[in-house]
Design goal:
Blueprint lengths: L9 E8 L7 H10 L2 E9 L10 H14 L3 E4 L5 H10 L5 E3 L1 H12 L3 H29 L12 H34 L2 E8 L5 H8 L32 E6 L4 E6 L9 H6 L5 H4 L3 E7 L4 H18 L4 E6 L6 H10 L8 E2 L8 H11 L4 E8 L4 H11 L1 E7 L2 E8 L1 H12 L8
Parallel strand pairs: 1-2, 1-3, 3-4, 5-7, 5-8, 8-9, 9-10
Antiparallel strand pairs: 6-7, 11-13, 12-13
Helix pairs in contact: 1-4, 4-5, 5-6, 13-14
């Protein structure tokens, strides 16, 4: 299915919480992102019912809502077990499809996956989702000594082995892709580029911030491009615009910087789903600096919860410094911003507050990026005047920040660069053979 295609199906969203009030805002956003028309909702606060997830009486109310709205799909903002799905199906009008939160997310991912890497990650997540269900079918079929027990589908004892084999094959292919991407990152570092990654939850404003920071020129990543980075497009308030990474070049005066925007986090992702998309986050794990973008207009408890989850994910494998960016300052008052700064100080010390939308404080963020990136090394080279000297000088100009160049009987060049570039420049200088005296 292409991104321009949409479902014609009408959907009722449902959500159960153990305590408090159930909010359906995010699941509605997810449903719309998948192309569904949300025509009704049902919520319940109670402990999980083993048979129906929601209470049996509430399940009957759900069936009435589906019939009244002429919906063909029920989307749960919860994870449903195979028995619960079967029992709910018996309560709902015939042919009503039931989708839980994670199957909905996988559906969105499947629609947006355009590169081989993204497609493999979606397939891996789908298989990891299916595996426990295949195991449940096998267990029940063996116990009852008949296939298709409780409507769970026909039992095939080879299905589990097939799924595990497919998972292993996909992991091997993803590892090969990551090795290629890591080689590309190292080549860029050797060419003098600093690598900065944007991380954070969906709709925090990462893509808009990338537009603010970056030049117009795209860097060829051979991956999906965000539609809102097209020169004629505006940033969109959408979830999962792409599964790929978009890399853009940022002019930082003394540095050549590449900024990569990655797929955003979403709340309540199970471990198996996060694991399936870990290779997408390698652009974050292998960066020189991570900008953790937060929507500062959200409630403080929600921001705190998201920061904790991001830290758990990022600090697991990341060694680069992390700078928290409090985005969307245009949507809060100065007093509210200060209050949230203080409340979040333990999780986000010394954050940078910006508005990617208006450009407020983006210059300050650039300065912070420059200060947090690895120190540049100062170098002074004295080069003999040969036929190849100017090509070396040109290479240094392309890969470093040149302070001065003096031309005489010899060429003296002073510059700042990453250590790898300094080493390369010394090697190139050593290869220059002085012209013999007459």
């Amino acid at each position: 299915m292409t991104e321009t295609e949409t479902h014609t199906e009408r959907a009722v969203v449902a959500k159960r919480v153990d305590s408090g009030t159930a909010s359906t805002e995010e699941v509605r956003d997810l449903a719309r992102a998948a192309g569904y028309e949300v025509v009704g909702e049902l919520t319940q606060t109670r402990t999980e019912d083993p048979a129906h997830h929601i209470g049996e009486g509430k399940a009957e109310t759900l069936a009435e809502t589906v019939a009244a709205t002429d919906a063909s799909v029920v989307i749960f903002d919860n994870q449903l077990g195979p028995y619960q799905t079967y029992n709910l199906g018996n309560k709902l009008p015939e042919d009503t499809r039931i989708i839980d939160r994670f199957r909905l997310i996988l559906e969105i991912f499947g629609q947006r996956a355009q590169t081989r890497k993204a497609q493999l990650q979606v397939e891996l997540a789908q298989l990891r989702y299916e595996l426990p269900r295949a195991e449940a079918k096998a267990s029940l079929a063996k116990r009852e000594e008949r296939p298709g027990f409780m409507g769970l589908g026909e039992y095939d004892e080879s299905r589990e082995r097939d799924i595990k084999k497919q998972i292993s094959n996909i992991r091997d292919e993803l590892e090969n892709i990551e090795q290629t991407e890591q080689h590309r990152r190292e080549q860029r570092r050797e060419s003098g580029f600093d690598l900065v990654a944007l991380a954070g939850y969906t709709n925090a404003g990462k893509s808009t911030l990338l537009r603010r920071l970056a030049e117009d020129l795209d860097v060829d990543e051979n991956v999906d491009l965000h539609p809102d980075l097209d020169t004629t497009a505006e940033s969109e308030d959408r979830l999962f615009t792409t599964l790929g990474t978009t890399t853009r070049r940022v002019d930082m005066d003394r540095r050549d910087v590449l900024v990569t925007d990655t797929v955003g986090f979403i709340t309540d992702l199970p471990h198996w789903l996060v694991e399936s998309f870990k290779s997408t986050l390698d652009a974050v794990y292998r960066a020189d600096l991570v900008l953790l973008v937060v929507d500062v207009s959200e409630p403080i408890d929600e921001i705190r919860e998201k920061l904790v989850t991001c830290h758990d994910t990022l600090y697991e494998r990341n060694e680069a410094p992390i700078v928290t960016v409090l985005n969307k300052t245009d949507a809060v008052s100065d007093a509210e911003l200060q209050e949230k700064r203080e409340a979040l100080s333990a999780l986000a010390p010394n954050p940078v507050a910006v508005s990617a939308k208006t450009g407020e404080n983006v210059a300050e963020l650039r300065e912070r990026i420059d200060g947090e990136l690895p120190e540049l090394v100062e170098e002074r080279l004295v080069l003999p005047m040969t036929d190849d000297t100017m090509s070396v000088v040109s290479w240094i100009h392309d890969h470093a920040h040149v302070d001065t160049v003096d031309y005489g009987d010899e060429v003296v060049i002073e510059f700042e660069a990453r250590p790898a570039v300094v080493e390369q420049s010394r090697s190139k200088a050593g290869e220059l053979v002085p012209a013999e005296s007459a």
